[in-house]
Amino acid sequence: MNNRLRVLRAERGWSQQDLAERLEVSRQSVNAIETGRYDPSLPLAFRIAELFGLAIEDVFVSPSKESAS
Amino acid sequence: MNNRLRVLRAERGWSQQDLAERLEVSRQSVNAIETGRYDPSLPLAFRIAELFGLAIEDVFVSPSKESAS
DNA sequence: ACTCGATGTGAAGGAGGCTTTACATGGAAA
DNA sequence: TTTCCATGTAAAGCCTCCTTCACATCGAGT
């Protein structure tokens, strides 16, 4: 599932480590989500969206709505 | 994580089996989510929200926003 | 050349999501 | 009572999420 995490993080000037600490997960988890190696759990998706003040749908792209470029 | 799945399902007169088929998961998965035994994956949460025409936030209650009754 | 911060990734292990099979209970209907 | 549907739950197995530890690469700065 695509997501805008890397962009949102960069807009704030945060490193993956910074973001990981705010989310209370490991840096590797942030990296894995950004690079698309796996999707976050639903509770973590909530924490991410709330941290950025967005709806989950504005951070993560529904598989059924991805454009084929 | 609390959710409104049972109510939304009942509003439509669907059995757990009906809902499971529409979501393409097992009836046991629907039951487990309704009874709070576990949270769905993020992709499944998207399918659930889209099926009901709602935002994820309108189906699942963020852990940080649950009222203590 | 050296260091240092940031990022990517691998391996191993624990917890959780999801499956199939299977069984139990309860309510409605006849 | 018997039947039938809906629901709850257990067990075993597989895959995913998330962890820690570890190592590699790259760019900036000195």
Report on this structure.
The structure is a homodimer of 69-residue chains. The first copy, chain A, has 69 residues and is mainly α. The first copy, chain A, has a single domain, classed as 434 Repressor (Amino-terminal Domain) (Orthogonal Bundle). Chain A is built from five helices and no strands. In chain A, helix 2 crosses helix 3. Chains A and B meet through helix 4 of A and helix 4 of B. Chain B binds a DNA duplex (30 and 30 nucleotides) through helix 3.
CATH topology annotation of chain A: 434 Repressor (Amino-terminal Domain)
CATH architecture of chain A: Orthogonal Bundle
Largest interface: A-B, 17 and 17 residues
Query: What would the principal axes of the Cα set say about the shape of chain A?
Result: globular
| Count of alpha/pi helices of chain A | 5
Task: Furnish the topology, listing elements before pairings.
The structure is a homodimer of 69-residue chains.
Chain A lengths: L4 H7 L4 H8 L3 H8 L7 H11 L3 H4 L10
Chain B binds a DNA duplex (30 and 30 nucleotides) through helix 3.
